[in-house]
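If your schedule permits, I should be very grateful for your opinion on a structural question. Please examine both parts with care and let me know of anything in them that strikes you as inconsistent. The record follows directly beneath this note:
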Amino acid sequence: MGPYRALFGQNIPIDYVHADDVGESGISGYKLLYVPYPIMMGERTAQAVARFVEQGGYVVAEARAGWNDARGYATPTIPGFGLDQVFGARETVVTPVQRTALVVKSKNAAIPLLDEGARLPGMIYQEAVEPLGGGQVIASFLDGSPAMVVSSHGKGKTLYVGSYLSLAYERTKDSQSQGFFQGLLDWAGVERPVSASPGIEVRSLEGSNYKLEFVLNGAEKEVPAGCGCGRRSRRRPSAISSPVKPCLTAGMAAVSCSRNRCRRKAPGSWRSGKGVGNDIPSVLAAPRGARGRPILHSDFPRRRSGKYRLDPGHGFRSVRGRG
């Protein structure tokens, strides 16, 4: 849960992929793979991870990767199943601990938001490693032993961490650790899907020919929405074509929409082929004659102050036009 919590506040969604699915189907459609608590790993899963890196993927693995196979048998080297060559690191000494700390030795592209001397909390294991091949040590434990190694393999890059940073962040919510996780996105070239003011939550609902962006303020005070989508693509069209300017008071919600081939229902409502842009509509509803395309409907009455609220009883409900 550590990476999820670290990225949730930045409106960055992540997927969870089961290790068995990775072993059976491989990894596709992703740029960055984070492997937390990887003590038990099947050989097919390890091979799929290696192929992902060879083909240009970025992978971060925590301590003792592939120590045991699916039957519980220990591997002779750690990381196991040849992953030591993929990550450019091999375990030398491991010490069970409750807590430990990793100190950044030098600034590196893999951890762009961390400066030299930054400390990252770790838990469970303090695994000292030796770099192999082109592996480079970029962080150490307090006793000076190597704790983090960055390397490259095939077309991709790897980062091996000798402790459990994800669990530590789940327990501590350390700001340096949050910077570590967010920096991994820049390292792997992962584009942020949306930018928003601090405290604003943006979530998406997408179908074959429409996309809704839900802009939520869960804070206790009014904040500017300040939302804007990342770079558009044909695969994932932008739902907010330009920044949403209105403020959202505490507990308020607003919706911005984009939909192909929909007619204009009312002033400020649907616009053909365009996102709503700067003006959140008073009524979001598809024309009744739309051919079987499910959308969400809700009323957002406009206040004189220029803000929007969701009246009691006007919850989201699914509607479908007649074909």
Summary: Residues 231-246, 257-323 have pLDDT under 50 and may be disordered. The first helix runs from residue 2 to 8.
